[in-house]
Amino acid sequence: MTQHHLANSELGSLDYDPAPESAQIAKLKGAYGLFIDGQFTDPTQHEQFASLNPATEETLVTVAHASAEDVDRAVASARKAYDTVWSKTTGARRAKYLFRIARIIQERSRELAVVETLDNGKPIRESRDVDIPLAAAHFFYYAGWADKLDHAGFGADPRPVGVCGQIIPWNFPLLMAAWKLAPALAAGNTCVLKPAETTPLSALILAEILQQAELPEGVVNIITGDGSTGSALVEHPGVDKIAFTGSTEVGRLIQQRVATTTKRLTLELGGNGANIVFDDAPVDEMIEGIIDGIFFNQGHVCCAGSRLLVQETIADEVLRRLVRRVEQLRVGDPMDKNTDVGAINSAAQLERIKELTAFGESEGATRYTSSCALPDKGYWFAPTVFADVTQSHRIAREEIFGPVLSVLTFRTPEEAVAKANNTNYGLACGVWSEKGSRTLWVAQRLRAGVVWANTYNRFDPTSPFGGVRESGFGREGGRHGLEAYLNV
Ligand code: NAP
Ligand code: MG
């Protein structure tokens, strides 16, 4: 470490001047309808609900609430588009539409980043550098597959599934929409997408983009609403496939509903990832990886490294450095380009985080919470680390889905694997070690869909993502992601 670095770390975090992005860039309309058959239309019951900015609690816009009747209209539109247009459109032509959508997302990326941050509360730096570029990358990637399905390993001329009902959560709104729509359209399906109640906005801007790309009417329908809208979509007999990303609880419910039908199903559910740190790991990178693994997107990440498993020999040093690093995280205005940790997405999610962290204290874990000042309005939770956590603690067993890290220790690789696997989830893990053979030994024994080595939260459209056990089934991304949308 250089003298300069030492001096900086002694000073704690440096103050930065505010660098706010402009909210005007969002160009929001006051109210949005349902996107059905290529047009924005009024909901049949004329019901609306508000979408808030969680950093200020102000209403951003009102959006339509889709009833079962509206779901029926959207499914009928998707069916008609499938039968009359999309199933007759060649792969090369479908690719052209997908490339167009990707390019328009790039052209409107600044607007989309602002919309996403206003609606979700995530730092503008993350929407700008992660969510929006990755959403465009997904459309680009699957555009490339649309005319090459014969070579995807699913036999000659694999057929689409038909009409897909797609339900997504609030943590990466546009990115989750891209993960769902891009492979489905590339494979030749038509879609009805339901975004989450607290973050419908970027999907509605995406609807405008689909119009701009002149995607044929009805190929994608976007209906805003709450759990009842999602439920009506799951129940609809005209839907051939349900793709769901969200909580394990709702996923289980959907699985029961679909079980007695011929509908196909993929589920991307919750997680409680272990980030395993060996004493030979490169320390500076590892500390940043741990921080990124849990505080990226306020910890509202299904694959978050929410359980840190650290080798006992270095546990004291790692904890000391982590606590110091947490103090330096800039928490506050998500629209400020310097912000590291933004607002919690909703009052309900904040309540859940508070409830679970209270258990952490009452069950005897040692709590370190950043001393950062929190804004008066909005939903906020200061980054928190719990040490002395044991496997029986609720904070180690349950998915907190917030900026809260639980630190556990281990002595041997065997113990690390046993503790990492001691969860009902199985989405993602990280392993930090200088030794490749050890990393591979551990990775082969971890029961998780994704294992990162000396990095964390790395996403790429070419790479399959998904879980095992209570984290769900089916893969999104890569060639594997096509399988979910082909009749194979
Ligand atoms: P959620 O409550 O399960 O909601 C997910 C979506 O399902 C929302 O659009 C929701 O609508 C809708 N929904 C609610 N009840 C429904 C029902 N009975 N039938 C059909 N749809 C229904 O989950 P969340 O709290 O939004 O998201 C957080 C969870 O998602 C976490 O557990 C996280 O780990 C998981 N997640 C997983 C992945 C992955 O790839 N594995 C990625 C991101 C998030 P409303 O918004 O109106 O409630
Ligand atoms: Mg919102």
Q: Strand order across the biggest sheet?
A: 13-14-15-12-11-16-17
Uncertain stretches of 5 or more adjacent residues? 1-9
The biggest sheet amounts to: 7 strands, mixed
The value of Rg in angstroms is 22 Å
**Estimated helix fraction:** 25-40%
Mean pLDDT over the full residue set: 96
Please report the total strand number as a whole number: 18
Number of helices: 16
**Cofactors, ions, other ligands:** NADP nicotinamide-adenine-dinucleotide phosphate, magnesium ion
Strand content: 15-25%
- Shape assignment: globular
What structural category characterises the helix and strand content? alpha/beta
How would you characterize this protein structure?
The protein is an alpha/beta fold. The protein is built from 16 helices and 18 strands. The chain has a 7-stranded mixed β-sheet with strand order 13-14-15-12-11-16-17, with helices on both faces. Helix 7 links the parallel strand 7 and strand 8 (220-222). It is globular, with a radius of gyration of 22 Å. The N and C termini lie far apart (55 Å). Residues 51-52, 119, 198-199 line the site of magnesium ion.
